[in-house]
Write the structure tokens for this entry.
Amino acid sequence: MRTPAAEVRQTGRDSMGVRLVNLDDGVSLLSVTKNGEDEISPKS
């Protein structure tokens, strides 16, 4: 799953972060990796 940084809304310092996806019960996220915007190919 990829989400361009431009699609993530900015938050203030008092926030708890931004939720990108809701996972079903029993589903875990294994890792997160930051890619540079220039490394991501444009959507077709």
About this structure: The chain has a mean pLDDT of 77. Residues 2 and 44 are 14 Å apart (CA to CA). The two ends are 16 Å apart (CA to CA).
